[in-house]
Design brief:
By secondary structure, the protein is of the alpha/beta class. The protein has seven helices and 13 strands.
């Protein structure tokens, strides 16, 4: 890991085009190197099975290259332009992409999952994921959209929180928003992670069924002993049809329970529509 996120760990060596290409051809582990030229030139245009560690490509044009099965650990891409480049089965770990410019690249987004781990540099992560989302939009790589949108929102939430603290805003000006967005992230995945939404929906329905079943005697004036299946039926029909079907509560508590079921049902329906809209329309 970099001791200073904006500079290489010492000691390191300066390399020109010739010396660096010799390393590419002869070594599978390139470490502690500052690449000096303005453009990365590699004959054959392919770089495979190499680990780059503590290497700086800052302010470098990386163009018309293919990287395959490469790892980049504690590397600097500050102010670099990466253009017409393909990354296949590569991995970035704790790399600085401050003000990087991405143009027409192919790279599955999970390769950048560990690119930035320190939340103090959330602003750099926001920039990186913004560049990636712009790249995927312009190159029509729509299959990566939802993954990248989730991580962009994740880091933006952290960055907004950091900025609020930096500007010494009162806690009530940013904590409610931050907590709300974290809840949205955990339970609904910002509307981009279907798994989060499905798990949350399933657990919510199970909990509501349990509550309705446990308090069933309070819903009706007469004493009843409903089966679990009847409680499931009452809950689902109330939530799905915005009103109870077959079983009509006749107590104040019962009416409150129906209202509660309806509100939860509307919330789940609205979230479902929003999730579908994001996937089909945007």
């Amino acid at each position: 890991m970099l001791d200073n996120f904006f500079s290489l760990n010492k000691p390191f060596e300066d390399k020109d085009e010739t010396a660096f290409e010799e390393l590419i051809q002869s070594s599978k582990h390139i470490h502690s190197v500052l690449y000096r030229p303005d453009k990365l030139i590699i004959s054959g245009k392919r770089v495979e099975n190499i680990k780059f560690e503590n290497v700086s490509f800052s302010k470098t044009m990386i163009e018309d290259l293919t990287f395959r099965n490469c790892t980049f650990e504690s590397c600097l891409f500050i102010g670099s332009t990466i253009k017409n480049v393909e990354f296949h089965e590569c991995e970035f770990t704790d790399c600085n992409f401050h003000k990087v410019n991405l143009e027409n690249i192919y790279a599955k987004p999970h390769q950048f999952k560990k690119a930035i781990s320190d939340k103090n540099y959330a602003n750099i992560a926001v920039h990186l994921y913004h560049e990636l989302r712009q790249n995927y939009n312009t190159t029509y790589q729509r299959e990566f959209k939802f993954y990248i949108e989730y991580h962009f929102n994740y880091w933006k939430t952290i960055n907004d929180f950091n900025l609020a603290k930096y500007h010494k805003k009162k806690w009530k000006e940013y904590y409610p928003s931050f907590i709300g967005r974290k809840i949205y992230e955990i339970f609904l995945g910002y509307g981009y992670k279907t798994r989060n939404f499905l798990i949350t929906t399933f657990l919510t329905v199970i909990i509501i069924i349990g509550i309705n079943h446990y308090f069933s005697n309070s819903l009706f004036s007469e004493s009843i002993e409903p089966s679990l299946l009847e409680s499931v039926y009452f809950t689902i029909t109330t939530m799905a049809t915005l009103g109870s079907s077959g079983y009509t509560p006749n107590t104040d508590v019962g009416f409150l329970f129906v209202i509660f079921n309806v509100i939860i049902g509307i919330s789940i329906l609205t979230t479902s529509i929003n999730t579908i809209f994001k996937r089909l329309i945007k």
